[in-house]
Predict the structure.
Amino acid sequence: MSEFLELKSASVASSKASWLLRLHLRNCGREGLWLIDRLFRVEKTGLYRIDPWRAYVHGLEGKSLLASKMLVAVPPGVHVEFPEIPCVTWLPAGEALTETLAIPIPLAESLPYATTPPRALGIAHSVRVKLGYLPGPESLDLHRGADIAGLPFAYPDYSSA
């Protein structure tokens, strides 16, 4: 995957509602890193709801679906009040964790900054996953809070991410 983050194994399960991808990640670098892995939804009240299984769905490249948990750049020509910055999880050097991504079926694009309704996608035969991360330090200046359900969250400034 990279010199910092290693994908140890993955499994896929499916139901009528979604594909569940389970990724086992290990930080093989010498320093800790921040996974950009906690996507959220904004409730009608304006409050955040962290959805740890949510992944962005970018579309199909041939028959391969591209999904991600990462910072997505604001597209040229799109104006936003604030960029969407996913929340982060600290992963110390040498440590591992399991990430789960839930991709709703039927497949449809799911991205921040959409200017049109989600586009339905065809059938995928494989999935490619992109994961964002920031190499240390653990003391990175983060905005911290809790979502509508009380789950703690932290996210960096857009310029840091």
